[in-house]
Automatic annotation (TrEMBL), chain B:
Keywords: ATP-binding, Nucleotide-binding, Transport
Protein name (record): ABC transporter ATP-binding protein
Top-level taxon in the UniProt lineage: Bacteria
SMART domains noted in UniProt: AAA
PANTHER family on file: ALIPHATIC SULFONATES IMPORT ATP-BINDING PROTEIN SSUB, TAURINE IMPORT ATP-BINDING PROTEIN-RELATED
All copies of domain ABC transporter, residue ranges: 8-241
GO molecular function term, any single one: ATP binding
UniProt keyword Secreted present: no
This protein's record includes keyword Transport: yes
Automatic annotation (TrEMBL), chain C:
Family: Belongs to the bacterial solute-binding protein SsuA/TauA family.
Keywords assigned: Signal
Signal peptide (residue range): 1-16
Pfam families linked: NMT1 (PF09084)
Superkingdom in the source lineage: Bacteria
Domain Solute-binding protein family 3/N-terminal intervals: 37-256
The organism's taxonomic lineage, starting at the top: Bacteria, Bacillati, Actinomycetota, Actinomycetes, Micromonosporales
Protein's name according to its UniProt entry: ABC transporter substrate-binding protein
Keyword Zinc among UniProt keywords: no
Organism, as annotated: Plantactinospora alkalitolerans
TrEMBL record, chain D:
Subcellular location: Cell membrane
Keyword Disulfide bond: no
Keyword Membrane: yes
Alphabetic keyword roster: Cell membrane, Membrane, Transmembrane, Transmembrane helix, Transport
Broad class of the protein's primary localization: membrane
Membrane topology: Multi-pass membrane protein
Record-given protein name: ABC transporter permease subunit
Family affiliation: Belongs to the binding-protein-dependent transport system permease family.
Annotated source species: Plantactinospora alkalitolerans
Residue ranges occupied by any ABC transmembrane type-1 domain in the UniProt entry: 62-250
Length: 282, 269, 323, 266
């Protein structure tokens, strides 16, 4: 039904796969594969060769790091360090979305509230979130909830501000339509306000995700005895260079997976939006 | 014609937009009545407050003074007895809902059984000729089809009055003719009372049983004209009738006079 | 509107400039250009008072050195800087040097800086919260104990002390808590006991928390807490500098250890750390001294090996280069 | 005229409400420790914090630290922007490169920059350079991605027109690509400026190179809650300032552009 929905709107994806249809799918797939993995592979090879010649002990080769990765993260460490981190991250993200969207909707709906809070919000958003770690430690102690609070305290702002903006900018005709059909408050929220602001909300969530990941790492670097951030800092303190790199790699993977998961959810939630944009662009 | 009862009564309606430094009088004094089952076209020069009038009728705007009465009780806000079809179909349909979802939305808070609701929705979508597109999203449809969806949504709501605000201003001529016929058809088959606001003189004469010509702002009713064309109308023969041309010319004159009505005192000075 | 803003800005600047203070200004800026510049990384803790005091007292200038103290958060930052040549010397815990040696980073220990006491009140201790009911080391088994940094001298000596007292060292749950955060965490019940240096030991005991053990004293009496480190490279390329610095260091530590100089040493704490004055006056200082106790360090490394904190032993012949 | 004064009235109301909100917040803050809801040791009185703030503002040492932080910020942002503009333009203009770098970019971009702190520390110890690595890495992607979007957004008709008139590469860059990509670039720059500030301060906190972030860490470890809160307020104000300045630049240089005008309509 929605022929355009499958297409993401990044400039990369907009690039239509070139090459004639008659040359066959095989070549196209091969070319796609080459494009997707050619450069990363090349980079790995160059890095590998370089590392065998270099004496810089802070840059081990990809093979060493790969080995360290398996040794370090496969097994118990995954349960002890990775899962708790991901749990806190997940909790933080969910809480940020709930708080951000709920508060953003309320603030967006009432003009006086918006004007009352605007300078405050601008200020709080501008505080670099890691700065709040010491404050959170003072108020909450060194606990899991403190880490989650730190994550939320940073990740909630882009979601909150984008929600306010999205709710505020709800189309006037759409609102009048809802008025004229006497749509109830809840239906209006669910069928008009939230969907209408969903593109902005999703933009906010995307920004919030990367902030949340950063704060997960930092909060663990400061006050923790477990977790991905703690481990990486620990490896560095003990000059376990390859292990440290493997931790960075793992964080990168978490980031990529988070981005992919978000992409899937976003495409689902905003199917109508991307579809509509494709149509208007055509 | 059977005897009709008064459905909508407007008396000395006045609307002034207030702003910090001065007031703008959009509607001066409008009075008219409308019977059940009538199709009344409202036509007037551009910028004469047609949309304001319509919003007052629909209860979306509170009038400054005067009275709007539905079935004998005053209108104080949006009422379930009215449904509005807006000019900007692209903005009045919700793009995140399917056609069916859009038509169904206003029915959700009506106390209807699931089956009743489904029947109403299906029936309305069929009535506007879109059963094949029920599961599409509005933005996948052409402009004309989108306006059909808006109409379907309005009739599924089962209002006593259907209010249409220049609904076809943004579609091309051919589609427009089709949609006009759709409105005529819905009116004749379902006897829905309709207020149709337009700036198009031909359209008002072709569609209406009555045409209300408005003056320039501050708006008054310039003329309340009965259209004595046969109820069976079609694009070719009706528009070719001599009476059609006469009526059209008459309305055109009225509108010109409405415009001059404001200019005249200045030139007299 | 804009004018008001601009006026406010000007007023603000004027206000700021009229009442200026500068808490950075140090009265003892050596003006002489003949002095050789040396960059030393040190932790911002009370023990560093000896270094600060020595500089102010002119000990280093006497040896032709102008010392710039760079505050390091920990050995982890200082040692890479040492290897890169960004700094010349670092004062840090010997355990960092062990780790660096195990990775062949090319770091040597040039001399001692501060040690714990063989008897009497030590400079650090494990303190347990009153409600935990812990009074002796064996009771730490199975409890949550905080150290400032996992996998270092703190947890190693605590495990040894617990075992010595008949407890199961492997069942202790160690967590990392920075020293200043310990009081609040103990009070909140997030941890049962914590290893802290002065002034926290006194502070905690006075509010009713229980002294459990001084792990250094109990396990390796007189263990070095801080040592002076340098890069092997520097030692080879500029032996004269190493020699001068070592001599100055030795003199400084002797100066600081002399009870007659306690006032300037404590003054250095007040000048350089944002500690309340009463604390600076009363904090217990370590034993300063240049001579390394190699045996105590070997004992520490052996214990670390025993408790699987280190998987190999550092090469002490290479690591320790007493000047 | 009418519209203008109506707008003025509205903006007065807005300012008033904003001030009320701010004052309300400060009062609530003052009340919490006063009523004993939170120990003043953990949440100090707002009056104490403001007094400390004034004290800091009169201390040259404070301005020196602030200068260090802002120097790292400015250098990092400049380096990142230059690199991102050059690379982004090249990659954005050549479709082949765009496809080839896609995987790489999509993998590197989400790596949280703070994960590189340990690496930066190992490489540079506690110098400003260590902080710069992190600042540059984080802000680079903000600009880079926007530049690619912008360069790729060049209207195809406009591009064909340019080609048919035989414009040189240089002309095409300055008359076609630059105007199209500029709004994107400025958006990226605004985002990057905010990110760079966050990381400049974070790096100082974690690595310990001198600056505001290190002052925050020191206040924390000294248990100086008043100083800590005062510094947090400073960072917030600083962030606000950076934000306002870059938003102003964006508005100014793009007053003709749809996206900016669109923002002001509502």
């Amino acid at each position: 039904m929605t022929p355009y929905a499958g297409e993401p709107v990044t400039p990369y994806a907009r690039e239509v796969v070139s090459g004639s249809r008659f040359r066959g799918a095989g070549i196209r797939i091969a070319a796609g594969f080459l494009f997707a993995f050619g450069l990363p592979f090349l980079a790995l090879v160059v890095w590998g060769v370089w590392s065998t010649r270099s004496t810089n002990r802070f840059f081990p080769g990809p093979l060493t790091i790969g080995e360290a990765f398996v040794d370090t993260w496969v097994g118990r460490a995954f349960l002890d360090d990775v899962l708790p981190s991901l749990y806190r991250l997940g909790l933080g993200i969910v809480a940020s979305i709930v708080v951000g969207v709920a508060a953003g909707t309320v603030i967006g709906l009432f003009r006086w509230l918006r004007e009352l809070l605007e300078p405050l919000l601008e200020f709080f958003r501008a505080i670099p979130p890691p700065v709040l770690i010491p404050v959170a430690m003072l108020l909450l102690g060194i606990t899991d909830s403190m880490k989650v609070v730190v994550i939320v305290s940073g990740a909630v702002w882009p979601i909150l501000l984008n929600t306010i903006e999205g709710v505020r900018a709800t189309d006037s005709v759409m609102t009048e339509t809802a008025d004229s059909f006497q749509i109830t408050w809840w239906e209006r929220l669910w069928f008009l306000v939230l969907p209408a602001s969903s593109p902005r909300i999703m933009t906010g969530v995307r920004q919030g995700l990367s902030v949340a990941l950063i704060l997960m790492v930092i909060s663990e670097m400061f006050a923790s005895s477990s977790g991905l951030g703690y481990r990486i800092a620990y490896f560095q303190r003990n000059y376990l260079i390859a292990e440290m790199w493997s931790g960075i790699l793992l964080l990168g993977l978490v980031g990529v997976l988070l981005a992919v998961a978000f992409g899937l959810v976003e495409r689902r939630v905003l199917r109508w939006y991307h579809g509509m944009r494709e149509v208007t662009r055509a | 014609m059977p005897e009709r009862s008064t459905l909508l009564r407007v008396e000395h309606l006045r609307k002034i937009y207030e702003s910090a430094t001065g007031d703008v009088e959009a509607i001066g004094d409008i009075s008219f009545t409308m019977n059940a089952g009538e199709l009344v076209c409202v036509v007037g020069p551009s910028g004469c407050g047609k949309t304001t009038l319509l919003k007052c009728l629909a209860g979306l705007l509170p009038p400054t003074s005067g009275l709007v009465e539905m079935d004998g009780s005053p209108v104080r806000g949006p009422s379930p007895a009215m449904a509005v079809v807006f000019q900007e179909y692209g903005r009045s349909l919700y793009p995140w809902l399917t056609v069916r979802g859009n038509v169904e939305l206003p029915l959700r808070h009506k106390k209807l059984s699931r089956a009743e609701r489904d029947t109403l929705v299906t029936d309305a979508i069929e009535a506007v000729g879109l059963p094949h597109a029920a599961r599409s999203h509005p933005w996948q449809l052409s402009g004309g089809m989108q306006q059909r969806v808006a109409i379907a949504r309005a009739i599924a709501y089962q209002p006593e009055v259907l209010i249409m605000d220049e609904p076809f201003a943004a579609v091309d001529a051919q589609t427009r003719a089709d949609l006009e016929d759709l409105v005529r058809e819905l009116h004749t088959t379902r006897r829905i009372s309709t207020v149709f606001v337009t700036h198009d003189i031909d359209e008002s004469v072709y569609l209406g049983e009555r045409v209300l010509v408005l003056s320039n702002s501050p708006t008054r009713v310039q003329e309340d004209l009965a259209i004595d064309l046969p109820p069976e109308r079609d694009q070719l023969t009706t528009r070719a009738l001599r009476r059609f041309t006469e009526l059209r010319t008459h309305v055109y004159d009225q509108i010109q006079r409405a415009k001059l009505g404001q200019v005249a005192p200045q030139s007299a000075r | 509107m804009k004018k008001v803003t601009a006026l406010g800005l000007v007023a603000g600047v004027v206000f700021a400039l009229t009442g200026c203070t500068d808490s950075d200004a140090t009265p003892s800026d050596q003006a002489s250009g003949e002095l050789r510049r040396v960059r030393v990384a040190a932790l911002p803790i009370t023990e560093t008072a000896a270094l600060w005091g020595g500089i102010k007292a002119g000990v280093f200038a006497k040896h032709g050195l102008r010392v710039e103290v760079l505050p390091a958060q920990g050995g982890a930052q200082a040692i890479p800087a040492l290897i890169n040549g960004d700094i010349d010397f670092a004062i840090g815990q010997p355990f960092g040097a062990f780790r660096a040696d195990l990775q062949d980073l090319g770091v040597v220990i040039l001399g001692n800086y501060a040690s714990s006491y063989r008897d009497g009140d030590d400079i650090n201790a494990v303190v347990a919260s009153a409600k935990s009911g812990i009074t002796k080391p064996a009771q730490l088994a199975g409890r949550k104990v905080a150290v400032n940094s996992l996998g270092a001298a703190g947890d190693v000596t605590i495990m040894a002390a617990v075992e010595k007292d008949g407890g199961d060292p492997s069942s202790i749950k160690f967590v990392e808590v920075a020293f200043p955060d310990v009081p609040a965490q103990l009070a909140a019940g997030n941890i049962d006991a914590a290893w802290v240096p002065e002034p926290f030991v006194t502070q905690l005991r006075s509010r009713g928390d229980a002294f459990v053990v001084a792990p250094y004293q109990a396990v390796v009496p007189g263990l070095a807490t801080l040592t002076v480190m340098g890069a092997t490279k520097l030692k080879e390329s500029d032996p004269a500098l190493v020699k001068d610095f070592s001599a100055a260091m030795k003199e400084t530590l002797g100066w600081a250890q002399d009870p007659a100089n306690e006032v300037p040493v404590r003054q250095a704490i007040k000048d350089n750390l944002e500690l309340p004055d009463p604390v600076a006056e009363s904090v217990r200082l370590p034993a300063f001294g240049w001579e390394l106790d190699r045996k105590s360090m070997e004992a520490l490394a052996t214990l670390a090996g025993k408790y699987r904190v280190l998987d190999r032993q550092p090469n002490f012949d290479r690591l320790i280069q007493q000047q | 005229m009418r519209v203008l004064s109506a707008r003025r009235l509205r903006s007065t109301r807005k300012v008033l409400l904003g001030v009320v909100g701010l004052v309300g917040f400060l009062v609530v803050w003052q009340l919490i420790p006063t009523l004993g809801l939170i120990d003043p040791e953990y949440l100090p009185y707002v009056t104490d914090v403001l007094a400390r703030l004034v004290e800091e503002f009169r201390d040259l040492a404070f301005w020196r630290r602030l200068g260090l932080t802002m120097t790292a910020w400015a250098i990092g942002l400049t380096v990142a922007t230059l690199a991102a503009v050059v690379l982004g333009t090249i990659v954005g203009l050549v479709p082949l490169l765009r496809r080839a770098t896609h995987t790489m970019v999509e993998f590197l971009r989400p790596i949280p920059s703070v994960a590189l702190i340990p690496l930066a520390v190992l490489m540079f110890g506690l110098q400003m350079r260590a902080a710069l690595v992190i600042i540059v890495y984080a802000s680079f992607w903000q600009v880079f991605v926007q530049v690619i979007y912008g360069v790729a957004d060049v209207d195809s008709v406009a591009r064909d027109t340019a080609r048919s008139f035989g414009l040189t590469l240089r002309e095409r860059l300055s008359y076609l690509v630059l105007p199209t990509a500029l709004p994107y670039l400025l958006t990226g720059l605004r985002l990057a400026a905010a990110v760079a500030l966050i990381l400049a301060i974070t790096a100082e906190m974690v690595i310990g190179n001198p600056g505001l972030g290190r002052m925050i860490e020191l206040s924390r470890s000294a248990g100086d809650a008043v100083g800590l809160y005062a510094l947090v307020v400073v960072t917030g104000l600083l962030g606000l300032l950076v934000n306002l300045v870059f938003r102003f630049i964006e508005r100014r240089s793009l007053s003709w552009h749809q996206s900016v005008r669109g923002e002001e309509v509502l």
